[in-house]
Amino acid sequence: MFEDERDNKIYNLIITNGFDTNKEYNQFTEKLYSKTDFLWKESMSGAYSTAGEEFYQKVDRIVLLAGLYNDNKELFEDLLIVSEKYEIPIVLVRPLGVEEVPIKLEEKAATIVGWNANCIIDAIKDAAETM
Predict the structure, then answer these.
(1) Residue burial 50-80, b: 16+ Cβ < 10 Å; e: rest
(2) Long-range contacts of 109-116 (CB under 8 A, 24+ apart)
(3) InterPro entries from the entry (predicted)?
(4) How many CB atoms lie within 10 A of CB 111?
(5) How far apart are CA 15 and CA 17, in angstroms?
(6) Over the stretch 49-62, which tens digit does the pLDDT of each residue have?
C-alpha cells in the first residue's frame, strides 16, 4: 500500500476560540491530540482581520467550531472573509450534540463534520479537494 502524502503533512490550522462556555475548543483539540498519527499545529493571531498575507500563506485550514458562533460572531466573520480572500478551506464542526449549523457558515464550508476524531481528521485532510 502506498503512503498518502497527506499523511506526512503537518497541517497548520486556525481553530476558532473565544467565549466558550461549553469548552468545545478544549474538547476539539483533545480529539486532534488523540490521533497521534495526525500532525498539526495551530496558528493564532490577536486580530485575524489585520493579520497579513504572510500569516495566511502558512495556514492550511480554518476550523470553525459552530457551537461558538453565537458568542463570537465577529471572529467568525473575520475568518470567513480571510478564508475567501486567501482561498483557505473551512472545516465546519457541528455544535456538540446538535446536527444543524448556521446557514451562513454552511454555505462557506468546504466540509461539515461532527465530533468523531477519525472523521475530523479525514475532513481536514480532504477539505482542499472540495474547494
Answers:
(1) ebeeebbeebbbbbbbbbbbeebeebbebbb
(2) 109/64, 115/27, 115/28, 115/31
(3) ThsB_TIR-like_sf
(4) 20
(5) 6
(6) 899 899 999 999 99
